[in-house]
User: Fold this.
Amino acid sequence: MIETAVEYVEKADIFVIIGTSLNVYPAAGLLNYVRDGVPVYLIDPKEVRIVSGRPVHVIRKGASEGMEELKKMLLKGAE
Assistant:
């Protein structure tokens, strides 16, 4: 099952992480399969320790509110 998730992550044009501590594996390891240059967004109201060397855009809000903010950010960038 994680193999299928890895395949999707490797093809993704954007990677969104919602409500996780990034401590639970194997799912936390999916961040390692994101291609270089693909924007990564983390939505969580709590502070999360990110051990990846890649830039991660952090939105410190709950899932619903954070997704609304992300939607606005992405739509603004598409203009």
In short: Helices lie at 2-11, 63-77. The two ends are 37 Å apart (CA to CA). The chain has a mean pLDDT of 90. The longest helix spans residues 63-77.
